[in-house]
Structures are given as structure tokens and as C-alpha cells.
Write a structure and sequence with these properties.
Helices cover 18% and strands 21% of the residues. By secondary structure, the chain is α+β, with helices and mostly antiparallel strands.
């Protein structure tokens, strides 16, 4: 179960990062080449891909499809400029929101000392789309991504929604339940898990 969760964690971290994500064919369903990372000269079952997927492999491929859909729909994960941590945006309601804010589990912004705390294994990333929607996209979004690399569950204090509505959970690698509006001020994130939330800004 932990291996399955870690696969989702790494895939989510990749597909929700800035820049161009690189997946090797088979990564989307957990192909491991039996641990061999240099199988270019192995013309055998070690490097061949079996597309007759088992149930667990199909579940992981569906999760990757879901992540790709989030990335496609929300261009805040596909920015054309570097994140600056500076406020900006068009609408007055969101003009003071930074393009990225790094959050301590307590809900406050991360401090310099937090980044050097060897006991802190959790953080949050709040992204606000500052650009106008691209053709075919009618909304801008704020996104909240929580990471817990620790061995124990963590209670996160969620930031207030920038537009004043409610966060909708997009996924949680430690949960199997579908996305739903989440109105609590705190969120319990499992050990070795990450979760993402969204809120429309317009």
C-alpha cells in the first residue's frame, strides 16, 4: 500500500510542477523494469512493456490521466514565467495574492528557519493563476497542494479561499474518496501523502 501511495506521490509531484513533465512509457502504470534503470540493451521481458494491464496498473494509469486533466485545465501548473512570490493579477479581489505562497502546516507562511528545520516534513503550496484564461478556459483558479513526507499524519490549517468560497479536493493519495467541497478549516493528511485542492477565482 505504501509503495502504491509513493508512486502516486511522485507522479503528482511531477505533473503538478512547472516545466515540461517527462514520463517514460510505462511510468503511468508502474512499470519498474524490475529495478533496472539501464535496460537499453535488454531485448527481453525486462524492457518489454505488457499493455495487458492488471487492475492495480489500470488504477494508477487512471490516476495519471486525472493528473494530466488537472494540468490541462488549470494553466497555473503550466506557467510561462518563473514564480516570483510577488502579488499580481487583474481582478481587484485577487490582486494582492502572490503567485506562490509556501505554507507551514499551521497555516502561516513558511519562514527561513522552517526550511532548515530537520523535524518539519510537511508544507503547502498555494498557487494563484495571475494570467487571463487561455482560449477555451473560462476560469482562473487558486490551487492548494499539501505535502507530507513524514511518518505520521499531519493536521494542516487551510488558508482562507482567495475568492471566499470553498476548496474542492481534486485528489488525496492517501484517500480513495472522490473530490468534494471541503469547508473545514483543517485537513488531516496521511503520512507519506499529498493532496490538491482548487477554487475558482472568477
Amino acid at each position: 500500500a505504501m509503495r502504491k501511495r509513493q508512486q502516486k506521490n511522485f507522479l503528482a509531484t511531477l505533473l503538478l510542477s512547472q516545466g515540461v513533465p517527462h514520463l517514460l512509457a510505462g511510468d503511468e502504470f508502474g512499470n519498474s523494469q524490475r529495478g533496472n534503470n539501464n535496460a537499453y540493451c535488454q531485448d527481453n521481458e525486462l524492457s518489454w512493456l505488457d499493455w495487458d494491464l492488471a487492475t492495480e496498473q489500470r488504477e494508477l494509469a487512471n490516476f495519471v490521466r486525472h493528473l494530466a486533466g488537472i494540468r490541462k485545465e488549470c494553466h497555473g501548473f503550466r506557467r510561462r514565467q518563473f514564480l516570483t512570490g510577488a502579488p499580481g493579477g487583474g481582478q481587484a479581489r485577487i490582486s494582492a495574492i502572490k503567485d506562490v505562497t509556501w505554507l507551514h502546516p499551521s497555516g502561516r507562511e513558511m519562514r527561513v528557519s522552517d526550511w532548515h528545520d530537520p523535524h518539519l516534513h510537511c508544507l503547502g503550496m498555494l498557487l494563484a493563476e495571475q494570467e487571463a484564461p487561455q482560449p477555451g478556459h473560462q476560469r482562473r483558479y487558486a490551487h492548494l497542494v499539501l505535502f507530507n513526507a513524514g511518518l505520521q499524519p499531519e493536521e494542516f490549517t487551510l488558508p482562507e479561499c482567495p475568492a471566499g468560497s470553498a476548496w474542492t479536493r481534486l485528489f488525496d493519495t492517501g484517500e480513495e474518496r472522490p473530490g468534494l467541497p471541503f469547508r473545514s478549516q483543517t485537513y488531516r493528511l496521511h503520512a507519506r501523502a499529498c493532496a490538491a485542492f482548487a477554487e475558482p477565482l472568477n
